Amino acid sequence: MMKPSIDIDTVKGFLDPNEGHALYSRAIEAGALGPVLEVGSYCGKSTVYLGEACREKGVSLYAIDHHRGSEEHQPGEEYHDQDLFDGKAGLMDTFWEFRQTMRNAALEEVVVPIVASSLVASRNWHTPLGMVFIDGGHSREAAQADYRSWASHLVTGGILAIHDIFPDPAEGGQAPYEILKLAIASGLFEEIDRVKTLGILRRL
């Protein structure tokens, strides 16, 4: 069980603590295989869980987010946070909050922030990865782009974790569940665990 260096409840985000501890445990395991990468950092809650594990294993955590918020974070949407809205730009901007979280958690020497879309960040990427955590945009297009951009960089035995898995459409959006099924159907992954809405697969 992880003992975070900050009060994790003070970090803005939507990750359940059980899911967070599962990410930490899997990153400890995967850190022996290579660095870890997450798509969708928001204000850094998941980054703290993953970053603590990466610090213990001596590997980097690449944190990819354009920091303009997902569809549900925009003005007028269900999860909009006015405190994260840049009035001058007229856009969401979570990067300042994210950097503050990393500083407070003393993870600035572990986490490599990449402020870009998943597609842009994946161009010319050649570093093999021990673990990929996908929690970016939840539209079908965004989720499939995240999966196709990063799953191929996982080493054999590596971990693919996907957040917001809802088999029942009445409980939530289907895009993350669709890419989980896509990964299994490819024959390259097997699902090894499910913690609340976190699906965990291993690269075969």
Give the strand tally. 9
The total domain count is: 1
CATH class term: Alpha Beta
Reported for the largest beta sheet, the result is:
7 strands, mixed
End-to-end C-alpha gap: 27 Å
> From N to C, what is the helix and strand string?
HEHEEEHEHEHEHEE
**Uncertain stretches:** none
In percent, how helical is the residue content?
25-40%
Q: What characteristic shape results from the CA principal axes? A: globular
The name of the CATH topology is Rossmann fold
Number of helices: 6
Strand order of the largest sheet: 5-2-1-6-7-9-8
Strand portion, in percent?
15-25%
Mean pLDDT across all residues, rounded? 92
Description of the structure:
The protein is an alpha/beta fold and 204 residues long. Helix content is 31%, strand content 22%. It contains six helices and nine strands, in the order αβαβββαβαβαβαββ. The strands form two sheets. It has a seven-stranded mixed sheet, with helices on both faces. The chain has a two-stranded antiparallel ribbon with strand order 3-4. The model has no long low-confidence stretch (mean pLDDT 92).
